[in-house]
Amino acid sequence: MSDTLQRIVQLVGDKKLRVSAHALERLLGYRLPIEPLIDGISGAVLVEDYPDYFKGPAVLVLQFDEAGEPIHLVWGLPAGALEPAVLVTVYRPDPDRWTDNYSRRNAG
Q1: Are 72 and 59 in contact (CB under 8 A)?
Q2: What are the residue boundaries of the structural domains of the chain, listed by start?
Q3: CA 48, 23, 102 angle in degrees (round to 5)?
Q4: Which domain of life is it from (predicted)?
Q5: How many other C-beta atoms lie within 10 A of the C-beta of residue 46?
Q6: Residue 4 pLDDT more than 70?
């Protein structure tokens, strides 16, 4: 687990989180309840780690919705701040762009 993901899991567990307007729109568009995703953050699979992202450290993680379908979430920390964890966006991974387990981008 990356340092960033570890920090995000801790913050989410402590209820120190924020959902961006963009992420909220995506959740509504997919008709996904947020509670299971928040509750499942400790079991999220790290896909990509962006510790030096200019807006603050961020991670792309894989989780599964209540129907067992894959979903990618981008969580971040504000630059120069220790909290809150911010859910930046949520999307369904395109199977043509990801490996069968949705945890690695297809080459090419």
Answers
A1: no
A2: 3-16+27-91
A3: 35
A4: Bacteria
A5: 15
A6: yes
Predicted TM-score of the model (pTM): 0.93
Report which DSSP code applies to 90.
Answer: E
- What's the rounded Cα separation, in Å, for the pair 44 and 63? 5
DSSP 102: S
Q: Is 88 helix (H, G, I), strand (E, B) or coil?
A: strand
What are the strands, taking DSSP E only, across the chain?
Answer: 17-19, 45-50, 58-64, 70-76, 85-91
Burial class (CB in 10 A: 0-12, 13-18, 19+), 66: exposed
Token pair 């729109």 is at which residue? 25
